[in-house]
Amino acid sequence: MIATIQNISGLDDAICAMLLSRRKWSHQKDEALRDACDKCMTRRGFWLAETPPEAAKTVLAYLPGLVARGIKEGHHTLIQMIDISVTIQDMHRGAQDDLDAHAHRMGNRVIRNSTRLGKWKGGERSDWYRGKILTAQEAGTVEDEVSWYGEDFKWNGFGYVRKDLFDDQDVQRGTYPLSIPSTFTFRVSYDGLRHIYSLRGPKSHANPEIHEALDMLHRDLLRKMPWMGDFLPLVWDKWSKVWRNSITGAQLDYDPEDTLKAR
To answer: DSSP assignment of 143-183, as one string?
Structure first.
């Protein structure tokens, strides 16, 4: 299973929206900011390893304010303007269904392997299930064809399908188990991804393969847009006035805003 961030967009829009809401926006600032973003990021929205100093200074100067407004003060619409495209390859179908519970956070922008149009080989399963389960055929306890109440059935690798319906994908998928590998892509706002991570990330009660996928995405985000990776697992406790891990609730022993300002 491989989880990859494919594209990040809307950081310039989010910063400009923040300026506009506080009546600090102008056409000149807008153009200067977007030009600086173009110089600091790849065409896919990833932060360059080496950036022009002045352009980087322009963009980074706005990030503490964006974090303060969009995350700390809870103005979620600002960071909802930042979109992230994700591809997850060969996660087992059951875990994918768990992530589908957050389709609203993705704006229903999720496309999956179709069990109606796609085909799987017998015994095919996600990496997480390999070595953990066997089909009846792998265990050597079934025949390729059987008769049942006068009807002939054929083994398809997962179960038996009536021979006259063997090429009907709507019938075939009725035998597919939740362990089959499924590849899917979705687009989610940064705010939505933070919410999903808080409920399904490492050390949560989610499926272990979802833990792995979100940990991969977190590490990928740290490489491709470091400040967004830094704040992905964090939440501001407005009552205690401290930053905490969004899953464990543990208080941080450092101030991530100081880290951001030092970038």
So the answer is: -SEEEETTEEEEE-SSSEEEGGGTT-HHHHGGG--TTSEEE
